[in-house]
Amino acid sequence: MAKILGGLTTSHIPAVGNAIHNGLFDDPYWKPFFDGYPPIRAWLDEHKPDLAINIYNDHGLGFFLDRMPTFAIGAAHEYRNEDEGWGIPQLPPFPGAPEVSWHIIESMVEQEFDITSCQELPVDHGFVVPMQLFWPGAPNNPDMPRTIPISANTVQHPIPTLKRALDFGKALRRAIQSYPEDLKVVVLGTGGLSHQLDGERAGFINKEFDQYCMEKIVDDPEALTKISRMELVEKAGAQGTEFLMWMMMRGALGDKVVRRHSNYHIPISNTGAGTMLLECVE
Ligand code: DHB
Ligand code: FE
């Protein structure tokens, strides 16, 4: 049976990809951010997951405003980085796990989540930067597990509610746990925390709200479902809606989790950068 080991969250800022490329790990601006990752890598080294379900939000690469699925699941053999930011690094593709994807899609639809299934899906920084933070050198890291990308719409309103995101995660948990073969799974939630990249509030960051979300998501994610989408945009900024990915990840972990690690640093580029490792308790 497949088993969910835990959840990993991280912001997915494109400038991080550039900082990795240029080896800026000890640079004074970047160090407090990169220092958030070695404890998570040590945990991954110890537990060696076989599969990473990477819940991210596409930023107009795989889907655009003319066709915007609310929830999309990758069902491809591999996923290519075609990110638009900082030039396109020539990376080999990230290996998929289509047989697991189809099982999950089947189960999600059975549980009345209507899914867009993607047999081709180019991936952007929302997917790639977290993979490189958790598995340095990815996809050229032999310890990197196979991946399944899951994207939700945070770009074009109406976006899902926080409750719907948490419920999606709960259904995803049942989908993963019903996979008959032995697989150790980690679930990534990438994006956030507060940021707004455009308009009058460009540069907006809300430390207090970010810290409230990081606290509540551990033991009381239901409390966060009381936040309306308007309130989320108001408190977290227009792109702070990416917190939906964290809620989807959290739903997949079950009721009880242990926070093994967490880091928060502002600003990284325009964003409140949060990182967490939540371990599942059976
Ligand atoms: C930034 C953050 C994001 O989440 C993103 O998708 C693009 C840019 C930023 O802070 O620069
Ligand atoms: Fe983003």
TrEMBL record:
- UniProt keyword annotations, A-Z: Dioxygenase, Oxidoreductase
> Which CDD domains does UniProt cross-reference here?
PCA_45_Doxase_B_like_1
Is Magnesium a UniProt keyword of this protein? Answer: no
Residues covered by the Extradiol ring-cleavage dioxygenase class III enzyme subunit B domain:
8-273
| Keyword Oxidoreductase included in the entry's annotation | yes
Task: List, alphabetically, the NCBIfam families matched.
Answer: PRK13364.1, PRK13365.1
What name does the UniProt record give this protein? Protocatechuate 3,4-dioxygenase
Q: Which organism is it from?
A: Antarcticimicrobium luteum
